[in-house]
Amino acid sequence: MTNPLFYAKILLFGEYGIIEDSQGLTLPYSFYKGALKFSDLDSDFEKESNESLLKYANYLKDLELPEAYKISISKFQKDIRKGLFFDSNIPQGYGVGSSGALVAAIFERYSVKTYLPEHISKDELKDLKKIFGEMESFFHGKSSGIDPLICYMNLPILIENKENVNKVLIPASEAGKGAIFLIDSGMTGETGPMVQIFFEKMKTEGFRKTMKEEFIRYNNACIEAFLKKEMTPLFRNLKSLSVWAYEHFKPMIPESIYKVWKKGLDTNAYYLKLCGSGGGGYILGFTKDYEKAEKMLEGFHKEVIYRF
Question: Glycosyltransferase as a keyword (predicted)?
């Protein structure tokens, strides 16, 4: 029996915005991955994973899923008794989709009907997003279903709005001076509390207005420019997005990152943005000159995810 690997994901654009109907763009990230496996559960990690799968199976048992997307809970529970666990190196609380990969792996193995990502229609994508949202709500309280969908499809996905998602081609990565990279803030972030802060902010009219008129405009313009590989408008809008986040998403920016975030804006050497909900985990960086940015960000662990 093969163990399909499910990769982590990176939300390049759209954090928080997708809650308010902005566009989003996500990519699979193969550096981190997870797969369902069997073992004698000798290690604490395997034992804990197996126990949490059992809790999760109980949650899924009570979910009313449509016929076409039903999951064989009895088969899942039987495998849990046999020593099933999720073997993953995807860090939790880093905004790269640890629970998304788990949901995708479970659906792939236990869904009664088989779906092949390359043959999935736009309507099925919409349905799967909804199903995955319900399945992932166990971990986050409320989920859009986007993370598991990306992990499941293992393809770049353009989030067009709250309802619609589509497969998309992104320009090939090439060996240039520019880069998109991840910075490790050195601390984990919890999605729940961060999302709560966002919803509190959304109660004020001023914030709602700037979210709609500025954040969403910059965010969507970044996506359009990136997909067309137009670097000048991309970096112009990235700077606006980074300034906006620095002013309005302060609580979501890890303390270790404050100063270097501002430094990027002051020097235009690089621009930073949240990767996922923030509060910790990874931060995304964009630069036209990675060598220069790397020197300025000395002391931080960095991973390049795309070159141009």
Answer: no
In DSSP terms, which residues pair with 306 in a beta bridge? Answer: 180
Q: How far is CA 110 from CA 69, 169, 195, 272, 293, in A?
A: 10, 29, 30, 39, 45
Ranges assigned E (strand) in 179-234: 179-184
In DSSP terms, which residues pair with 35 in a beta bridge?
Answer: 87
Could you tell me which CATH number the domain at 179-307 has?
Answer: 3.30.70.890
DSSP code for 66: -
Per-residue model confidence (pLDDT) at position 2: 55
What residues contact 17, with CB distance under 8 A and at least 6 apart? 23, 24, 211, 215, 216, 219
| pLDDT greater at residue 214 or residue 188 | 214
> Residue 243 burial by CB count (10 A; 0-12/13-18/19+): exposed, middle or buried?
middle
CA angle (146, 149, 152) in 5-degree steps: 155
| 54 to 42, 78, 198, 272: CA distances (angstroms) | 17, 10, 32, 39
Residue 71 confidence (pLDDT) above 70 = yes
In words, the CATH class of domain 6-167 is alpha beta
For 121, which DSSP code?
-
Give residue for tokens 């499941």: 152
In the predicted model, what is the mean pLDDT of residues 279-288?
A: 95
State the pTM of this model: 0.84
Q: Which residues are registered as beta bridge partners of 7?
A: 33
**Residue 47 near residue 41 (C-beta atoms within 8 A):** yes
Asked if the model's pLDDT at residue 1 lies above 50, the reply is no
As given in the structure block, the two tokens for residue 90 are 């995807």
What is the token pair recorded at 100? 């998304």
Q: What's the pLDDT at 8?
A: 85
Q: State how far the Cα of 76 lies from the Cα of 87, in Å rounded to an integer.
A: 16
Write the Ramachandran bin of 34: left for phi over 0, alpha for psi from -120 to 50, otherwise beta: beta
Domain layout of the chain by residue ranges:
6-167, 179-307
Tokens at 52, concatenated: 């949490």
pLDDT in tens, 191-218: 778 889 999 999 999 999 999 999 999 9
